[in-house]
Design brief:
The complex is a heterodimer of chains A (300) and B (171). With 300 residues, chain A is an alpha/beta fold. Chain A folds into two domains: 35 residues; 251 residues. Chain A has eleven helices and seven strands. A seven-stranded parallel sheet of chain A has the order 3-2-1-4-5-6-7, with helices on both faces. In chain A, strand 6, helix 11 and strand 7 form a beta-alpha-beta unit. About 13% of the residues of chain A have low confidence. By secondary structure, chain B is an alpha/beta fold. Chain B has one domain: 3-Layer(aba) Sandwich (Rossmann fold), CATH 3.40.50.2000. In chain B, strands 3-4-2-1-5-6-7 form a seven-stranded mixed sheet, sandwiched between helices. The chains are: A alpha/beta (300), B alpha/beta (171). Chains A and B meet through helix 3 and strand 5 of A and helix 4, helix 5 and helix 7 of B.
Chain lengths: 300, 171
């Protein structure tokens, strides 16, 4: 009798779990599917908005070594009055990239000071080193600072655990990936996601007041060029989209494949190709194989 | 007058290139091509103490002054001084040398598993920015003197990326 009851109970539980589990999996799968950039009409910033954005929150992943060198070369060409604030994300053990960030930002600061002397640019060097030493709290303060004051914040530096170490076994990689994902999720939310009021210009008044700073929208972009750890950042963004955060409040995912890849994509490139909103390659032959990618010449 | 040759393996291990560079036959060849100094940056690869002293400059029977060291934080100075660079095929070293408009011979490490370096070397060779070879064809390649007639590599154009991103973001 008891056995019979237990059997029935187990069956009932299994059916219930299946009833909940299968639709849940299906819903998650369809959400993921519709969150992928090729399956959704991404907000076309240039045509949709007639108002020029106020600024673009720029998050930059630095993958150490050659990746860092190429990425900083790309960043060095950006107009830092538009792409501000800049948040650099580096691997935990990558002090050399952090040094290079400080060096580049000092140059950028000098450039922008000479460009807008009358504006009286605020000291940038202090902000950078402060963030480095004081991790989260200082960064938080700086971000709220810039959001409230619309002042020219220089940059912040953040560290995340690597998804995969050199020579790490493929078996343990999922665990380290999850670890960096857990760090990446809140970081991405905090650094890159915009509030509704930031993402949208004051409707109606937007066009008329296009010169008025308060009426103009903000954009966000996440720049990546490998290696594997940036997968955690991209997945975190896809995750926020799956959770229902509107596209224009999440960062535009931009991947730039290395100059070193002529005929084949890197592992990071292959993984991020379906996830990214824009995918640049530096050799024309790759475009035939990867039609969503774009070749606009050598970038480094 | 052409004086200095720099052989560099970057931060990699490339025993065969280092062995070739420290061999008397290659040093004789470089001397006959008119070079007087050879710098070998050998990174993690061992260098035989019989051919060269591991620290300072030594004069060999080949007539070539040879300096060897493992690594420097920046190779830029040595690259600037060199008249000919013989480098491993890492994209970082290649770009650095091309930017300085140096005569560049790139040696692909055929022992690497995922050999996309060959693709990069070949692609840049095709456009005459450098000469690409392997350790076994290095001497022949140097003799052919193709490195004397290379195209200058275009300077980096950072506006390409910034224009792309500006358009995308709506600036």
């Amino acid at each position: 009798m008891d056995q019979h009851l237990a059997g029935n109970l187990a069956l009932a539980t299994a059916i219930t779990l299946a009833l909940i589990g299968i639709p849940l999996t299906l819903i998650l799968a369809s959400r993921l599917w519709s969150s992928l950039p090729q399956n959704r009409p991404r907000h076309t910033t240039s045509s949709e908005s007639t108002t020029r954005p106020l600024a673009c929150t720029t998050t930059i992943f630095l993958g150490s070594g050659g990746h860092t060198a190429e990425m900083l070369q790309l960043v060095s060409g950006l107009d830092c009055a538009h792409y501000t604030p800049r948040h650099y994300v580096v691997g935990c053990d990558d002090s050399s990239s952090v040094e290079k960030v400080h060096r580049l930002e000092t140059l950028l600061a000098a450039k922008s000071v000479t460009r807008t002397e009358e504006k009286g640019a605020r000291s940038r060097s202090g902000a950078g080193t402060g963030t480095e030493a004081g991790a989260g709290i200082t960064t938080n303060r700086l971000i709220s600072d810039i959001k409230s004051n619309r002042s020219e914040l220089a940059y912040t530096v953040h560290r995340i655990p690597r998804s995969r170490h050199v020579h790490q076994s493929m078996l343990t990689t999922p665990f380290t990936l999850v670890k960096s994902l857990l760090v990446a999720m809140p970081l991405i939310k905090r650094l890159t996601c915009l509030t509704k009021s930031e993402a949208h210009s004051n409707t109606g008044a937007g066009k008329a007041q296009s010169t008025d700073a308060a009426g103009r929208p903000r954009r966000s972009v996440l720049l990546m060029n490998g290696p594997g750890t940036c997968l955690a950042l991209a997945l975190a963004v896809i995750g926020t989209r799956m959770a229902g955060v509107p596209d224009d409040q999440t960062p535009d995912l931009v991947f730039v494949e290395s100059f070193a890849r002529v005929k084949t994509l890197s592992l990071a490139g292959r993984l991020l190709y379906p996830l990214c909103d824009a995918f640049l390659v530096q050799w024309p032959g790759l475009v035939q194989q990867y039609p969503r990618s774009k070749y606009i010449g050598t970038l480094v | 007058m052409p004086g200095t040759v720099l052989v560099t393996v970057g931060s990699t291990q490339f025993d065969k290139l280092v062995a070739a560079a420290s061999s008397p036959s290659l040093q004789h060849l470089l001397n006959s091509l008119g070079y007087s100094h050879l710098i070998i940056q050998h990174g993690k690869s061992p260098i035989s103490s019989t051919t060269t002293s591991t620290t300072d400059s030594t004069s060999l029977e080949s007539g070539l002054q040879v300096i060897t060291y493992t690594y420097k934080s920046s190779l830029r100075e040595d690259m600037e001084e060199a008249d000919l660079i013989i480098s491993h095929a890492g994209s970082g070293s290649i770009l650095e040398a091309l930017r300085l408009n140096k005569k560049l011979v790139v040696v692909v490490n055929e022992d690497l598993m995922d050999n996309h370096q060959q693709e990069l070397g070949d692609a840049l060779h095709e456009q005459h920015y450098l000469v690409c070879c392997t350790v076994s064809t290095l001497e022949k390649t140097l003799l052919a003197k193709e490195y004397e007639s290379l195209e200058p590599f275009p300077q980096p154009d950072t506006t390409r990326f910034s224009n792309f991103l500006d358009a995308r973001m709506g600036f």
